[in-house]
Amino acid sequence: MKLTVNNKETELTQGNTVADLANQLELPTQGVAIAVNNRMIPRTQWSEQVLHPNDSLVIIKAACGG
């Protein structure tokens, strides 16, 4: 299934949830936020949030520094 992740076309190869995408992209277990179609998805709902073809996701990673 093709999705747009941070303005880049991405193919989700297995599964169809936000959690599946996070696993595929090897995202860290902390310090990451994901929005689907401009709606933030709480981490507790990642395994329940089903993705659909052409969904647009924004992944934000926390960074330390100042």
From TrEMBL:
Q: Which residues cross the membrane?
A: none
Could you tell me which InterPro entries the record lists for this protein? Beta-grasp_dom_sf, Mopterin_synth/thiamin_S_b, Thi_S, ThiS/MoaD-like
Q: Which Pfam families match?
A: ThiS
Which PANTHER family is this protein grouped with? SULFUR CARRIER PROTEIN THIS (PTHR34472:SF1)
Q: What is this protein called?
A: Sulfur carrier protein ThiS
Q: Which organism is it from?
A: Phocaeicola barnesiae
Q: Which gene encodes it?
A: thiS
